[in-house]
Design brief:
The chain has about 250 residues and is of the alpha/beta class. The protein folds into two domains: about 150 residues, 2,3-Dihydroxybiphenyl 1,2-Dioxygenase, domain 1; about 80 residues, 2,3-Dihydroxybiphenyl 1,2-Dioxygenase, domain 1. The chain has five helices and 16 strands. It has a nine-stranded mixed sheet. Strands 11-12-13-10-14-16-15 form a seven-stranded mixed sheet.
Amino acid sequence: MKLDHVAIGVSDHRDGLRALTGALGGLVISGGQPPGSGFRAMQVRIGRGTEGMTVELLEPADTQHNDFLERFLSAGGDRPHHVTFKTDDIGAELERLRSLGIEPVAIDFSDPGWREMFIHPGDAHGTVVQIAESDTPAPPMDEWLAGLPATVFSYGGDPWWDLESIEVGEPAYLRAVVIGTPDRPTGDRFYTQVLGAESTRWGDHTEHRWEGGVIRLVDADVDRPRIAWLEVEGVDRECAIGAARFVGVG
């Protein structure tokens, strides 16, 4: 498993994009509007070289065919939507999950360019988990970033954003997706046993690591686990996209 990105649902991408590229120095690396999906997406790298993680902005589009994202935003506003992992063999992962008693939802293997399935939050310790396989391998991140803007990857039609209007600030580095939980042992088991993390447990938190990034579970007095904030190195202040908080650690 490789941790690919964390996705944030937004009603309008413009404020979120300004925060990611301006305040955090993010670089747009890919995006598109898959037909009938109900959304258009943009991936922004918060980091440089091989350091950092990727954030995806999801904005409703073509909602007459699929209104899942529109309903999600109507229920709770702009906020984190899912975390995506990539695998080299999604069929084998499906069978493995079923052997563990987990039945994924929204299984769609029809497009070899992007086969996907989702683990419901009830089975994934509070956060939607997308697992995907693509027959178009991404280049190494340092090479991808070095080639921008020529290497911006567009899928599902022409790019729908205006790169020339984007102002990029000083680079910051997304270090971890932080999930507050009332039951850390259960979350630790999910990320270790189901998603294959390399994990280190500390007094009040656990670091779960994969190629591509880190998810940190922290003890919290909450009714259910949820993404609490995203930790960013290189800035000493906080910025937000709706309820998605990016907390700087200097």
